[in-house]
Design brief:
Two copies of one chain form a homodimer.
Chain A: E1 3-6, E2 10-16, E3 19-26, H1 28-36, E4 42-48, H2 54-62, E5 70-72, E6 79-84, E7 91-97, H3 110-113, E8 117-120, H4 125-134, E9 140-144, H5 147-152, H6 154-161, E10 166-170, H7 171-178, H8 183-193, E11 197-201, E12 207-211, E13 214-218, H9 232-247, H10 252-269, H11 283-297
Parallel strand pairs in A: 1-4, 1-8, 2-6, 4-5, 8-9, 9-10, 10-11
Antiparallel strand pairs in A: 2-3, 6-7, 11-12, 12-13
Helix pairs in contact in A: 1-9, 4-6, 7-8, 9-10, 10-11
């Protein structure tokens, strides 16, 4: 089924213990749609400035992403700068320049309004709500959020959470949103707000998927070298929801498969800066990594 | 095959966000041998003081632990106090009173010298070495260590690492010991020192098992409520090595099974203070948790 994603397209400046890149392609909408495009043709709703490089637009178009909803307006593209800690897990935001994103008012085309699957990236909750107003009756709506909105727009955020089918959130944010100490309790609290599906992302520690009564744990693929974690969570969600949209199957078994696919794609994302590695992932690479994942996690029944 | 463990028996004072317990049974040797005793009859080599409570000794004896190597000497039992952070992962040591442990010089009985399996708990490296001098030709020797010895007795520690078959170590310690940024690189560095088997413990994030060229990931069992993480790593190692000793099978497949068993037993440990939960774990409880673990991690092959 058709998939629409509303999110950011950005230029990121990233410092890691291994190196630095300035003004490289990033943003939740970018990573999400690139990952989803491995399985379906996502439609990206976002805004960029006059400085958005033609080669970056060409890359997204080449990768089977519908850009009818990518608006170019006067001004500069959204910019984010961050520095990762030595363990590559924590990070500090060095700057956020909203630029053209400040006046972003997502407007869906008639075709996008009829989308079967919708993903609301971690934009301001009022914008997420405005997108929800525009869609007809999607089969599946998922959202992401971030610490900023939990602390500055909690009420608006919770009212969006109440209206979606799925929430993607990282463990710290889940704790911040619910005050619950364990991920199981935090997920149950978010489910009680409405969504059947709560996916708690834990970075290099994988993801916990609470789907109604079903609980599934998808471990992350352990890598020798992590180059840049930026976008891994959006990549995870993009592959997860892209796989669901492509298969149009929301069964418990398929949601588990989708989580594994999300973890595999996220493992590619962190192997390069920006979209450097992700852009070169093809079906063969995904199949190879899936086989490697099975080798890593399979075991025979113990004698008990 | 017979299993000997050399470690500490202690009284712990623990503060968690949920509560506090003082002078409760703890120590690496205690948790390790209680967990191993679910699969084999381990022989515990440790020292306690005159204040060691008869009911604690009776508990260990009842649970099928051979206490011929548990020495009682004048003075007080080793005491450790710690406070867990709000997320239950990090902790601060509030005090360490070595007491009778200060003069601990483990001496193995003739039977213990012929042990097939030996585990060196996280005691001082020179003591670990003195135990290695006493054993005949064990089939499998594993060791644990801690940050204190990495910073204060690195050379002695590395010389013990060179002589064992397996190292159990947590992720921070592996980073501290090797300076390597990812667990894969840290494990390869430790393997290069000698041990074929390197098990990197990651607390609630499970364990990575590097066994020769084989890499296996055993996720931890996600729990609704973690009461007290003290002893989880020793419990993991105790069940892991206890299962290996009971089966006398060091094949790749069996090492993977042992890691899963270790993760299951550790999940019981953290459900209570001290050994409160662990002491009541029987074969039926282990089987039930194994089934729950399968439900949590199983998935069908995706269409790729």
């Amino acid at each position: 089924m058709s998939l629409v994603v509303v999110g950011s397209v950005a230029y990121d400046s990233v410092e890691t213990p291994l190196g630095q890149r300035d003004d490289v392609l990033g943003g939740s909408g970018t990573f999400f749609s690139l990952a989803a495009a491995a399985f379906t043709r996502p439609s990206l709703v976002a805004v960029v400035g006059e400085d958005f490089r033609p080669e970056d637009e060409a890359l997204l178009a080449e990768k089977n992403i519908d850009l009818a909803g990518l608006t170019r307006v006067p001004g500069k593209t959204f910019r984010w700068g961050g520095r990762y800690h030595s363990d590559m897990n924590g990070r500090d935001t060095l700057f956020t320049e909203l630029n053209v994103f400040e006046k972003f008012a997502p407007k869906l085309t008639p075709e996008q309004r009829r989308a079967g699957f919708l993903f609301l990236g971690n934009i301001q909750p009022t914008l997420q709500a405005s997108v929800l107003e525009q869609v007809d009756s999607p089969r599946f709506v998922a959202m992401d959020t971030m610490n900023l909105w939990i602390s500055t727009a909690r009420d608006e955020l919770v009212s969006v959470v109440r209206r979606v089918d799925a929430v993607f959130i990282n463990d710290e944010e889940a704790h911040q949103l619910t005050g619950k100490r364990t991920m199981v309790l935090a997920a149950r609290e978010i489910q009680a707000m409405g969504p059947d599906l709560v996916v708690i992302k834990r970075g290099e520690h994988g993801a916990l998927v609470f789907n109604g009564d079903d609980v599934f744990y998808a471990p992350a693929f352990p890598l020798e070298k992590v180059v840049d974690p930026t976008g891994a969570g959006d990549t995870f969600a993009g592959a997860f929801v892209g796989y669901l949209a492509a298969s149009a199957d929301l069964s418990t078994a398929n949601v588990r498969r989708a989580a594994i696919i999300g973890a595999l794609m996220a493992s590619f994302c962190v192997e390069g800066y920006s979209v450097e590695r992700l852009r070169h992932v093809d079906a063969a690479a995904i199949r190879d990594r899936y086989r490697a994942f099975l080798e890593l996690t399979s075991f025979d029944a113990p004698a008990l």
